[in-house]
Design a protein that fits this description.
- The chain is mostly helical.
- The protein has 2 domains: 194 residues, Clc chloride channel (Orthogonal Bundle); 193 residues, Orthogonal Bundle (Clc chloride channel).
């Protein structure tokens, strides 16, 4: 029995067909890393274009943003259908339906990149991380069809690996990419896909690092909890951050359901009204609510920004309106930025721990409340700030926030949104 197994393993190792599968898969993972890294660079440039325009003429975005969102919504409907929103719901739905090609394709990946960049240039409050998941899953799935991979690769492995690689490359957080695939995408970790996901993340992460260099998304934080009484910050940030995150998720789910019939019949009008809301909120905030929120969050984390008590509300409102407009764009980065603002406010109102600690805990608490994936939440914040000192505090805050969020929003965000993409042919 053992000898027969060894002979089978040796034949598989030396099989030209098996090596074709491996090489195409590895090339796909490298391609995902390269595309997502370049997408990250271009996103920052698109973001900066808008901020330069707003700085030169603060009133101009009141026209540019609504018209820009209308143009993007039209392109989404007419040229790149299926590319709307975050992209994570589409990737999840692709795991559950036989009509995967309608959700994952090269055309959709191209549209996701172009339209997200246009959205950032127009001043929408969107992120590129959810789109990176959609892009990664689309690239790997399309390569799998081209190479005619074995069925089990097509079934889950390629989509999961592409999704995880997208997160890993977007945030430079390889561990979070793997955890995200386990916790959010598949809700399980099957043996036949575990190696595929891990390999994809490694190749994509190395490629992204080669393009962008070794960096941490929010820099390096040295925040730490020292005094025993400071641990009360975990409860404060977990409960309040989780409730606020749950309220945002509930608003996004309810808003998406309410807007859905109007989005089908009058998509451009919906985009126009949402664009006006984004523009007005942006003007009121001095345009700190526009874009990904990366700059604002990083400035809070490293202590170089003053705390604006209204910033979290501005960012939440702009992100909600941007998502409901129907344009492509994610909520990962905006939610992390909102959470940083929440933590900064809690640090002023409940000074039970250093402000730097409150900002990190607020970030993980709100983010966990929004996505309701507590392990992904604390791992991603830990990796983005290179702060292992806060691991236990981040973990505890994340799980408290998850519990608090469930009290106001019992339905998980991405799984609920994925239902809109599941047709009558649901099933694997």
């Amino acid at each position: 029995m053992m000898h027969r197994h060894l002979r089978r393993s040796r034949r598989t190792l030396l099989s030209p067909k098996a090596w074709k599968v491996r090489l195409v898969f590895w090339a796909g993972a490298v391609l995902v890393g390269l595309v997502c890294a370049l997408f990250a660079v271009l996103a920052e440039h698109a973001n900066q274009i808008f901020f330069d325009v707003a700085a030169d003429n603060p009133l101009l975005p009141l026209v540019i943003t609504p018209l820009g969102l209308v143009a993007i919504a039209w392109l989404t409907q007419k040229v790149f259908p299926g590319s709307q929103g975050s992209g994570i719901p589409q990737a999840i739905a692709a795991l559950e339906t036989r009509s995967k090609s309608a959700l994952l394709s090269v055309r959709i990946a191209v549209g996701k990149i172009l339209l997200t960049l246009l959205g950032l240039a127009a001043g929408a409050s969107i992120g590129r991380e959810g789109p990176s998941v959609h892009i990664g899953a689309s690239i790997m799935y399309s390569l799998g069809r081209f190479a005619r991979f074995p069925h089990h690769y097509m079934e889950r492995g390629l989509i999961l690996a592409g999704s995880a690689a997208g997160i890993a490359a977007a945030f430079n957080t390889p561990l979070a990419g793997i955890v995200f695939a386990i916790e959010e995408m598949s809700r399980s970790f099957e043996q036949k896909t575990s190696g595929i996901v891990t390999t994809g993340v490694v190749f994509a992460g190395i490629t992204a690092m080669a393009v962008m260099g070794q960096y941490h998304y929010f820099g390096v934080s040295d925040a730490k909890l020292i005094e025993p009484t400071a641990w009360s910050a975990v409860i404060v940030c977990g409960v309040i951050g989780g409730v606020l995150g749950g309220l945002f998720t509930q608003g996004l789910i309810k808003g998406s359901q309410w807007v859905a019939p109007y989005a089908r019949s009058k998509p451009l009008l919906v985009a126009l009204l949402a664009g006006v809301a984004v523009a007005v909120i942006g003007y009121a905030s001095g345009y700190t609510s526009s874009g990904t929120g990366y700059g604002e969050a990083r400035a809070l984390v490293d202590g170089s920004a003053e705390v604006d008590p209204l910033y979290p509300l501005y960012k939440m409102g702009a992100t909600l309106a941007s998502y409901l407009s129907g344009i492509p764009g994610g909520i990962f980065a905006p939610s992390l930025a909102t959470g940083a603002g929440v933590g900064a406010n809690l640090g002023l109102w409940f000074p039970v721990a250093p402000l730097s600690v409150m900002i990190m805990l607020g970030m993980v608490g709100y983010f966990s409340g929004v996505v309701q994936s507590p392990i992904t939440a604390f791992v991603i914040v830990m990796e983005m700030t290179a702060n292992q000192n806060m691991l236990l505090a981040l973990m505890a805050t994340s799980f408290i926030a998850y519990g608090a969020s469930l009290q106001v929003c019992p339905r998980p965000l991405y799984r609920t949104l994925a239902e809109a993409f599941l047709g009558p042919d649901r099933g694997r």
